[in-house]
């Protein structure tokens, strides 16, 4: 199917899965244990409804905003996700090119198939192109058992001018994804990460000792670059992140790949909105997980998110069509977001607020 005939992110998934090997398809799709949380990430949005206002001039609409302090064409960003090479020979470079051409922020996984150096080189090369946007990058950090390895990577990211660091906090040990294990014939309980076998090697990537006391060390390395804590679920941890002087939190359950039965990011956001709305003014909150439609994005923004991340959709998009797939996925989201804004009766992202949504099912308590 030609790329321009793909009309939704679900169709993008279907296009990718029709060409992926079983192993790679399952690696991208995998959720932990029974995938309850992965599924709930999508259905969480079904519990709320939007409340459109009518009789307003919506002839001119701008979905522009800032993400991690950087200008962004849309209130979405590319969530850092590993092993893009499983889908396409150009792997993460497709994401870099697609983000540069559409004005999105790209999150770079610490477990990318291409090295950080390769991705930064590609960004520099694109700067010399006529790309209409300055590409902003957010480097995702795994605190490794061997801290000096993390230091080398963070120093490179900082020296070469990435705009933000995303410290992943929900992966002190790797979640149990049986589909991925089964393909590799792994059984039994092995050390954290050793399950990954032929994929990017993880063992050293996850230090079970990672804790709040590591933050001063990372902040020293980061200098002026803001740090966002990724993988937060509870209001208590958001408060701790604020108290530790972090720029923000990404409410996330790692696409349902870590703790099955963990609460969805959207429900965590609504819990904060209900219990302590002031907190949303004290620290920037982003969410990811299961976001596939422009209306999902607007619901998240209505409850106070600054922006949202999409993980699998961009892996699928680059799998199916390389850079063009990434651009198409962004265009699909752009048209859905702009359409939803118009139908809601708003013309700018900062007009979205909680009066535009209601919850019809309080199942999260
Ligand atoms: C991820 N995610 C992830 N997160 C992270 O901090 N570092 C990583 O290396 C990865 N790798 C990764 C691989 C794959 C295949 C997936 C699907 C996800 C999690 C990712 O950043 C994000 O939290 C989720 O993907 C969001 O959920 P959706 O959009 O995939 O539903």
TrEMBL record:
The keyword Oxidoreductase applies. Its cofactor is FMN. It comes from the Eukaryota. It comes from Kockovaella imperatae. One of its GO terms (molecular function) is L-lactate dehydrogenase (cytochrome) activity. Residues 1-362 form the FMN hydroxy acid dehydrogenase domain. Keywords: Oxidoreductase. One of its GO terms (biological process) is lactate metabolic process. This is L-mandelate dehydrogenase. The keyword Oxidoreductase applies.
């Amino acid at each position: 199917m030609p790329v321009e005939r793909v009309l939704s992110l679900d169709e993008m998934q279907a296009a990718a899965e029709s060409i992926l090997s079983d192993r790679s398809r399952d690696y991208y799709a995998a959720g932990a244990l029974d995938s309850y949380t992965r599924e709930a990430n999508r259905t969480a949005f079904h519990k709320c409804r939007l409340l459109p206002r009518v009789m307003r001039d919506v002839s001119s609409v701008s979905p522009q905003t800032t993400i991690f302090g950087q200008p962004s064409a849309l209130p979405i960003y590319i969530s850092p996700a590993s092993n893009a090479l499983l889908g396409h020979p150009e792997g993460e470079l497709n994401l870099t090119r697609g983000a540069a051409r559409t004005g999105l922020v790209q999150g770079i996984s610490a477990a990318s198939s291409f090295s950080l150096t390769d991705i930064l080189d590609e960004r520099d090369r694109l700067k010399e192109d006529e790309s209409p946007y300055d590409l902003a990058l957010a480097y995702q950090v795994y605190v490794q058992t061997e801290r000096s390895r993390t230091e080398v990577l963070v120093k490179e990211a900082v020296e070469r001018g990435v705009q933000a660091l995303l410290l992943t906090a929900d992966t002190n040990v790797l979640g149990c994804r049986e589909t991925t294990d089964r393909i590799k014939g792994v059984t039994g309980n092995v050390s954290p990460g050793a399950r990954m076998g032929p994929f990017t090697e993880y063992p050293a990537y996850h230090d079970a000792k990672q804790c709040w006391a590591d933050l001063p060390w990372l902040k020293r390395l980061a200098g002026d670059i803001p740090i966002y804590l990724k993988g937060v679920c509870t209001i208590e941890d958001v408060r701790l992140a604020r108290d530790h002087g972090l720029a923000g939190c990404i409410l996330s359950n790692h696409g349902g790949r870590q703790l099955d039965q963990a609460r969805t990011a959207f429900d965590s956001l609504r819990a904060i909105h209900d219990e302590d709305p002031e907190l949303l003014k004290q620290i920037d909150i982003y969410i990811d997980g299961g976001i596939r439609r422009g209306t999902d994005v607007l619901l998240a923004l209505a409850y106070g998110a600054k922006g949202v991340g999409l993980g699998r959709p961009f892996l699928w998009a680059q799998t199916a069509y390389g850079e063009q797939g990434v651009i198409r996925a962004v265009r699909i989201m752009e048209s859905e977001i702009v359409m939803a804004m118009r139908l809601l009766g708003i013309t700018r992202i900062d007009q979205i607020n909680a009066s535009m949504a209601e919850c019809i099912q309080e199942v999260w308590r």
